[in-house]
Structure prediction request, 381 residues.
Amino acid sequence: MKKLAILGSTGSIGTQCLDIIRENREKYSVSALTCGSNTDLLEQQIKEFCPEIAVTESEEDALNLSKKYKDTEFFWGKKGLIEAASSECHMVMNALVGMRGLEPTYHAIKAGKDIALANKETLVAGGQIIMQAVNDNGVRMLPVDSEHSAIFQCLEGNRGRNIRKILLTASGGPFRGYTADKLEMVTLKQALKHPNWSMGKKITIDSATMMNKGLEVIEARWLFDVDADHIEILVHPQSILHSAVEFEDGSVIGQMGVPDMRIPISFAMAYPKRQKSSEPGPDFFGKASCLTFEKPDPEVFRCIKIAYEAIKAGGTYPAVMNAANEVLVGLFLDGRIRFTQISSTIEKILDVHKAEYNIELEDILEADKRARTETFRLVDL
Ligand code: NDP
Ligand code: MG
Prediction:
């Protein structure tokens, strides 16, 4: 039996991970579950999966729940997430959203746990430190992000072979084909409507700005140790080819499937095996009239350009970009800034950032904190 700690169990990825456990009871048990503020859902999950540890964002929620569930130990806040990440288990599924995922990932690796990583912000902000820790501690880092799961699968049996490039596919989001002028006018409601995937709000907005693809370029750079120059974004609106790898002999190997996150989640959970799915097989060859590919326009979707520049500049640049993006996406979701202020403000923040290199985890946390303050100051609401 594989024992899992699920960080962010009340979110889109977290609940889908629990769906898979529900279907495979004989294979998995749960050591820890964590939520932010959705304690109602956490309670249901505690009743169903009986974790040894449960974590809430606030102390008050943790203390209240601890009176009701005597077999579970309750923790809260950042310390609680680290406690869950280091709990007695084989694998930590990190389905938290945002930079708060970084420290629990780091501690889980240090505690010798394999990681199933949905929380891409972990690698965007701290990729070098995290991958170094993965190597030092001999644990597995299994991507959950669909594109990275695809690339991982394309590389199976091909490790050590020379790669010409990684083809990272993107749906293009709800504003595919828009001009820069048209983007100025878009609303929150439009931005929240993703054409192919149903996901948490932050990643849905990241998909609309295409920062999500920028974050994924950085994620791929660290996961597969490939320079950003060798990672190419391909807009593929049908979301059937989940990414591909071109090898030095010109062969391109890709991974396809219906757009359903349970496939990459299940792949990471079961690795090195594959898990039987109860869903019907894909019928896209019969249904889809064509698969199309086009290049994105980084002058319109400026977040793509920003992310490439940030990873090439290195040091604290990606962490600062990520922090500014998190703050700005939050402000956009609250209806306090316009859509295009997300990219324009990140550009301003990075322009004045004085990067640090040879960094430790603490330097990343400090850069993140300062970038958040600076972003609020710049937006000046
Ligand atoms: P959701 O917003 O749906 O879920 C986020 C989880 O994090 C929830 O459990 C939430 O708890 C918890 N959380 C939020 N704030 C806090 C906090 N302050 N303290 C503790 N926990 C908190 O996000 P997604 O599941 O969509 O995404 C999770 C990660 O996976 C992201 O990094 C995303 O980029 C990545 N990803 C997601 C995909 C998807 O299809 N959803 C696809 C590929 C990658 P609560 O709800 O209780 O507040
Ligand atoms: Mg993705």
